[in-house]
Specification:
Strand content: 5-15%
Number of strands: 5
Radius of gyration: 16 Å
CATH architecture of one domain: 3-Layer(aba) Sandwich
Order of helices and strands: EHEHHEHEHHHEH
Low-confidence stretches: 1-7
CATH topology of one domain: Rossmann fold
Oligomer: single chain
CATH superfamily of one domain: P-loop containing nucleotide triphosphate hydrolases
Number of helices: 8
Strand order of the largest sheet: 2-3-1-4-5
Distance between the termini: 12 Å
């Protein structure tokens, strides 16, 4: 890898410019791993809260019971369109790391394929990474004060509801990591070795 921890260039994740997709439930460590990839390589972090919070904050989600998550779907889709367009316009030498939680639901596989196609149009490698951890590990992490400061889910009850939904199965080419047994540094090492 050409980028060093002291001077990341943003042009090398593992074997060259890449679009890494980190998929996992809340508290699986997506942002932690994302930040370590950014620190080591200079990759651009496109955390799912970049997209979600652009809608959740102004609409007042979690501040008013009449605002339901489903009511934000169309707006978040429009924000995703802009993020995809901006990523496509970025120089091909730049790497990006996206994070998202995807239930096994209609449209989820299409989202993965949309990002795979984006990587293809940019001429960069697509690296899908599925993060998992045991329920008790996730519940132990979810109420961390740092999560609240970043506007992330902190309610164990809500997390249990999310975990009741099956995660989109990993594609055949995905790297699957258990963040309950693998440290963030080890996870990043495995991603960079892809």
């Amino acid at each position: 890898m050409s980028a060093s921890p002291d001077r990341p260039s943003g042009n090398d994740v593992g074997q060259g410019p890449s679009l890494v997709l980190l998929v996992g439930p809340p508290a699986a460590g997506k942002l932690t791993i994302n930040r370590e990839l950014e620190r080591r390589t200079g990759a651009i972090v496109v955390d799912n809260h970049l997209v979600n919070n652009a809608v959740f904050v102004p609409i007042g989600l979690n501040r008013s019971p009449e605002v339901r998550l489903e009511a934000t779907d169309a707006l978040r889709a429009r924000v995703w369109d802009v993020v995809i367009e901006a990523t496509e316009a970025a120089p091909a030498r730049l790497s990006h790391v996206f994070t998202v939680w995807l239930a096994d639901a209609p449209g989820s596989a299409a989202h993965v394929e949309r990002l795979r196609a984006l990587a293809g149009r940019r001429g960069v490698r697509f690296v899908p990474v599925w993060l998992q951890a045991g329920t008790e590990t996730l519940l132990a992490r979810v109420d961390d004060p740092d999560r609240a400061e970043r506007g992330k889910l902190t309610d164990p009850g809500a997390l249990r509801e999310i975990l009741a939904l099956p995660l989109l199965p990993a594609p055949e080419d995905a790297l699957v990591l258990d963040t309950g047994t693998v440290s963030p540094d080890q996870a990043v090492d495995a991603i960079l070795d892809r």
